[in-house]
Design goal:
Blueprint: H1 4-8, H2 17-28, H3 34-41, H4 45-57, E1 61-67, E2 75-83, H5 88-96, E3 101-107, E4 112-119, H6 128-132, E5 139-152, H7 158-162, H8 167-173, H9 193-204, H10 210-217, H11 221-233, E6 237-243, E7 252-260, H12 265-273, E8 278-284, E9 290-296, H13 299-308, E10 316-329
Antiparallel strand pairs: 1-6, 2-4, 2-5, 3-4, 3-10, 5-8, 7-9, 7-10, 8-9
Length: 339
């Protein structure tokens, strides 16, 4: 099994500068209209729409409407599962199909699964998966570390760092609904059933039209627009571009665990987040208290990154790495392969 984008992407590599401009625009504002995108890129709205349709139908990318766990009172756990080699693929597939997992990866030569697990509440006891895994016969070891503070991720991705748009273009596209980062102690937002249904639909297609969402939820189009605006303003809803790995031509991916002096953790996390190679970075519980996902073109450049950029992080005590062999599920819901 591969991810949806691995399975459905046509066999061409990289994107043109024009296409990357469109991808960058969608990362900045996933629900921007084609007219808004066209005005910023200096093209017609028909051209913008055609480019999007081509990339989407080829399986190159999709826009997802996702939720911030902390704004809903949930927790995220970075989980590592070591298992027997014959069990990793089937166990990984089963984990990918769950609704409480994202970023399910096979790593370490196919003997380890890493993923993010979302729990309803602060503790691992809230997760049936985290309770079940240690009792699974082919599982050798399980470790779970709670995400404490995201330094880079969620509505920010490598596209923000590597995309071609200027600061002025980014400002022009930024949604007025986009909130400032909510303080860690902000009370969680309460959702009703219609909100949950709307968010489930946006998680599958972040650019679904208000009329389509209204038909599926039983709400009016004006209510759909209002709730999307309110959920974005509250910091609950954000939009992210899921893309095929070759879009940015980063063919070597690895998980990086760092042990940092606690007095330098905030400084080290901010420095790590600024690295072009970093796709995600968060402070976690545990001895290795800083986790990152790394994307680089080759293993040789990963070595260079470790010895030049990582080695100079403030307060660094220890590093551990694991190359990612295959991604079974990305940030959005699992979509089964088409026949």
């Amino acid at each position: 099994m591969t991810t949806y984008l691995d399975t459905h992407s046509q066999a061409y590599r990289g994107l043109s500068d024009e296409d990357m401009g469109l991808v960058h625009a969608l990362q900045v504002n996933g629900r921007a209209s084609f007219r808004e995108i066209a005005d910023v890129l200096g093209i017609s709205d028909q051209t913008a729409a055609r480019r999007w349709a081509r990339l989407r139908s080829a399986g190159r990318l999709r826009v997802l409407g996702l939720t911030d766990p902390l704004r809903l009172g949930d927790s995220i756990w970075v989980v590592r599962v070591r298992c027997t080699p014959d069990a990793a693929a089937s166990l990984g597939e089963a984990m990918a199909r769950r609704t409480d997992t994202t970023w399910v990866n096979l790593s370490s030569g196919g003997t380890e699964i890493s993923c993010s697990v979302r729990t309803r509440g602060p503790g691992p006891e809230e997760s049936p998966l985290l309770q079940k895994l240690p009792r699974t016969p082919q599982v050798v070891d399980v470790s779970a570390h709670c995400s404490l503070h995201v330094f880079f991720g969620q509505d920010l991705s490598p596209i923000n760092k590597r995309g071609p748009l200027t600061a002025a273009q980014v400002t022009a596209l930024t949604s007025p609904d986009a909130p400032a980062r909510a303080p860690d102690a902000a009370p969680p937002v309460t959702l009703d059933d219609s909100d949950r249904q709307l968010l489930d639909l946006l998680a599958r297609d972040g650019r679904a039209a208000p009329g389509e969402l209204a038909t599926a939820t039983g709400l009016s189009p004006s209510t759909v627009r209002r709730r999307i605006t309110e959920l974005r303003s509250a910091g609950v809803l954000y939009f992210d571009v899921e893309y095929h790995p070759d879009v940015l031509q980063r063919n070597f991916r690895a998980a990086l665990w760092l042990e940092i002096d606690p007095s330098r953790l905030a400084e080290a996390g901010a420095a790590l987040a600024a690295h072009p190679e970093v796709a995600f970075a968060t402070a976690t519980t545990g001895t290795a208290n800083l986790y990152a996902s790394i994307d680089v073109p080759t293993a040789q450049l990963f070595y260079r990154y470790l010895t030049e950029s990582v080695a100079t992080l403030p307060g660094l005590r220890h590093t551990a790495t694991a190359p990612i062999q295959r991604t079974l599920k990305g940030p959005g819901p699992y979509l089964p392969e088409r026949a």
